[in-house]
Amino acid sequence: MSTTQYAVSGMTCGGCVSRVKATLSEYAESVEVSLQPPKALLMNAHVALDVLNSALSKVGHYTLSEIGDDKIKKSDPAKLDSTEFFTTEPKESANWFATYKPLILIFAYISLVALIVEYSQGSFELHRFMPNFMAGFFLVFSFFKLLNLQGFADSYAMYDLLAMRFKAYGYLYAFIELGLGLSYLLNWQPIITNWLTLIVMTFSSLGVIRAVLNKQKIRCACLGAVFNLPMSTVTIIEDLLMAAMALWMLI
């Protein structure tokens, strides 16, 4: 039996895994696809790599590439431990900081900029610091989502209660965050902006809480499809923090 392994780029969620597997299944005897790590295992594939990539390009932004010793000859299929190699559950990270380093750095940069603004004003005022922090938060997070809008929408639909029913909301959500960021930056209608933030972020947290309680092993879409962050209580804190800051400014 001829077995070929490929690295797969462009996958962000379980839906991507299903699309890639369904597409490749037309060109091999059997196919296994995993998200963590993003790889595909094709048994007795009967077409070249460029044909596979051409087919994948028609269903999404997915690309196969050869990895290491990708050609493996097996006379006994039972010797191939595909259940061990292919799993949709993310591996445990070496440590907490390594996993959430991108998120920590982004929060640190946004906090630093907001503090520098306060320093330039000669005094620290919480009601001025919070809108500046929230402006930075929404602008930066919407930027990462817009880098791969389709990838974000696919991931977001895996757990958000509204995006599950209406996938278009996943595309709209990135622009909602962009609008909130600009509103805080320009100090446009603070009461309306804070109410919208409170509603949007509280509702968003419900889907995250549900996913965490159900122990779903899926990717967090908070930074779009750029970083591979696991869904966890950190995501809940992130959403509820924005909602709490908006509520505090409304009181």
Secondary structure topology:
Blueprint: E1 2-9, H1 14-24, E2 30-34, E3 39-43, H2 49-57, E4 63-73, H3 82-85, H4 96-121, H5 126-147, H6 149-156, H7 161-165, H8 168-186, H9 190-213, E5 219-220, E6 229-230, H10 233-250
Antiparallel strand pairs: 1-3, 1-4, 2-3, 5-6
Order of helices and strands, N to C?
A: EHEEHEHHHHHHHEEH
Beta-strand percent range = 5-15%
In helices, the fraction of residues equals 55-70%
User: Average pLDDT, to the nearest integer?
Assistant: 83
The radius of gyration computed from the alpha-carbon positions, rounded to a whole number of angstroms, is: 22 Å
Shape: elongated
Strand tally is 6
Number of helical elements: 10
Largest sheet, if any? Answer: 4 strands, antiparallel
How far from one another are the termini? 68 Å
What are the segments in which pLDDT stays under 50 over at least 5 consecutive residues?
69-94
Domains counted in the coordinates: how many?
Answer: 2
The neighbouring-strand order within the major sheet is 2-3-1-4
Structural class: alpha+beta
Explain this structure to me?
The protein is an alpha+beta fold. The chain folds into 2 domains: 84 residues, Alpha-Beta Plaits, CATH 3.30.70; 155 residues, no CATH class. It has 10 helices and 6 strands; from the N terminus they run βαββαβαααααααββα. Strands 2-3-1-4 form a 4-stranded antiparallel sheet, with helices on one face. A two-stranded antiparallel sheet has the order 5-6. Strand 5 and strand 6 form a beta hairpin. The radius of gyration is 22 Å and the shape is elongated. It starts with a strand and ends with a helix. About 10% of the residues have low confidence.
